[in-house]
Amino acid sequence: MSEFVICIDNESNPASLIVGKVYRRLHDPDAEAHQMHLILDEDTSEPDGYLYPASMFVPLDLPEAAKKVLIAAVP
């Protein structure tokens, strides 16, 4: 599964997610088993991320250079 996703729906969380923004998805087998993603979002008070329905995101396949930049930019 992709390490990065793009938000396509923030209706239930407009303060925490921005439609069209790329987010880092953390690997969480329990969340994935329930069709959820663990996302590092706009709320930096929770460094371990928040759970969101997977349907709110589309996975991205990025070049390695882009991944390195995004990993460095996202705590």
Strand content bin: 25-35%
Largest sheet: 5 strands, antiparallel
- Unreliable spans are none
Q: Percent helix among the residues?
A: 10-25%
Cα separation of the termini:
20 Å
Mean pLDDT: 89
Write down the Rg.
Answer: 12 Å
What class, by secondary structure content?
alpha+beta
How would you sum up the global shape?
A: globular
Count the E strands: 5
Order of helices and strands: EEHEEEH
In order across it, which strands form the biggest sheet? 4-3-2-1-5
Q: Quickly count the domains.
A: 1
Put simply, the count of helices is 2
Explain what you see.
The chain is an alpha+beta fold and 75 residues long. It has one domain (4-73). It is 20% helix and 29% strand. A 5-stranded antiparallel beta sheet has the order 4-3-2-1-5. The longest helix has 10 residues, at 64-73. The protein is globular. The two termini are 20 Å apart.
Question: What attributes characterize this protein structure?
Answer:
single chain; alpha+beta; 75 residues
Short structural summary:
It is built from 2 helices and 5 strands; from the N terminus they run E-E-H-E-E-E-H.
